[in-house]
């Protein structure tokens, strides 16, 4: 699988060249670079792309300035925690390359994700195979390319690994009850309290080194204490390992669940407090995390086209060319953070109907009656040919698009820009 085309970008293409030499050094297949400066407004950018399109189709804009700013926020608030970006959240190659050049490592859950990361030139020791249940063929692949750290929460995983990847080091994934997260992970993932000791022993008997503990407190965790409390539980497992005379544990994996919002400061403070309280005496400790949404959500803007309109009394109904079988597909995708803004293709239309808004419904293009994007929201009146722009569309969106009903909503072009973080 090749992701890159090794072409050199045109010399004046973006300010990205100065800011992120590695990210800019390759032009990505199926993606486009733009001739922009940071002072160009996003709307000018959208207009210039839309006008150049041969036939209208949705597109994404990825702002690497946002990614850079989030990485520097991460480094200043969690200086001791190494981020492993959760690739499933958004495997866009430009995003992955930028994160790699900013020093991130990667959480992969499948063979395809491992290959995508390797094709960036990232070494295997920067990949965590963070899937507690792996098929035999994927385990064999991981072994063949030297991805030597994975998670587990069952005996059967040990049995498979013993046969196909006996040198792999292990993190025990523990179950977290996440009542305060928006989407919890505990019902499917993680060892129960009374399974932990037998699993540690079973792994040891089979020649494996369990190097640490991993958890995920649920996506969009709103209670900073959830991290503190689970860090305390992880320490109890470190203690259990030393009481059982197993090799000392060294890796604390605090998972994902973060959002790039003001709450992140409080969450970081609780994590630091937890590490200080429970882990300050652990020798050679590495703390890692698996942020997905944090780095991806705010970096992407989606631009769709209004392709149909129906007026019903005072309600406006529109069709756009993306929907729940496209970027609005995954249940992990959260409509509360997306922001919809109409964009009128003709300048003089900016003030249609004196700026008044109407109760509006927005449908996706397929013939499934569930294919709604927005229901009863207030929007200015739009016409066929206008654009509907959605901000904060980088998390669990394009990564889950389908071709249902003959609408190919996979692989919409992504235009990469770098807007000054300040
Ligand atoms: C999906 C996932 C993540 C990322 O979660 P976010 O809520 O996007 O931060 C991290 N770790 C694992 C194991 C996951 O499955």
UniProtKB/TrEMBL annotation:
<feature type="modified residue" description="N6-(pyridoxal phosphate)lysine">
    <location>
        <position position="88"/>
    </location>
</feature>
<dbReference type="GO" id="GO:0004586">
    <property type="term" value="F:ornithine decarboxylase activity"/>
</dbReference>
<dbReference type="InterPro" id="IPR022653">
    <property type="entry name" value="De-COase2_pyr-phos_BS"/>
</dbReference>
<dbReference type="InterPro" id="IPR009006">
    <property type="entry name" value="Ala_racemase/Decarboxylase_C"/>
</dbReference>
<dbReference type="InterPro" id="IPR000183">
    <property type="entry name" value="Orn/DAP/Arg_de-COase"/>
</dbReference>
<keyword id="KW-0663">Pyridoxal phosphate</keyword>
<feature type="domain" description="Orn/DAP/Arg decarboxylase 2 N-terminal">
    <location>
        <begin position="65"/>
        <end position="296"/>
    </location>
</feature>
<comment type="pathway">
    <text>Amine and polyamine biosynthesis; putrescine biosynthesis via L-ornithine pathway; putrescine from L-ornithine: step 1/1.</text>
</comment>
<dbReference type="GO" id="GO:0005737">
    <property type="term" value="C:cytoplasm"/>
</dbReference>
<dbReference type="Pfam" id="PF02784">
    <property type="entry name" value="Orn_Arg_deC_N"/>
</dbReference>
<comment type="similarity">
    <text>Belongs to the Orn/Lys/Arg decarboxylase class-II family.</text>
</comment>
<dbReference type="InterPro" id="IPR022644">
    <property type="entry name" value="De-COase2_N"/>
</dbReference>
<feature type="active site" description="Proton donor">
    <location>
        <position position="367"/>
    </location>
</feature>
<comment type="subunit">
    <text>Homodimer. Only the dimer is catalytically active, as the active sites are constructed of residues from both monomers.</text>
</comment>
<dbReference type="InterPro" id="IPR029066">
    <property type="entry name" value="PLP-binding_barrel"/>
</dbReference>
<dbReference type="InterPro" id="IPR022657">
    <property type="entry name" value="De-COase2_CS"/>
</dbReference>
<keyword id="KW-0456">Lyase</keyword>
<protein>
    <recommendedName>
        <fullName>ornithine decarboxylase</fullName>
        <ecNumber>4.1.1.17</ecNumber>
    </recommendedName>
</protein>
<dbReference type="GO" id="GO:0033387">
    <property type="term" value="P:putrescine biosynthetic process from arginine, via ornithine"/>
</dbReference>
<dbReference type="InterPro" id="IPR002433">
    <property type="entry name" value="Orn_de-COase"/>
</dbReference>
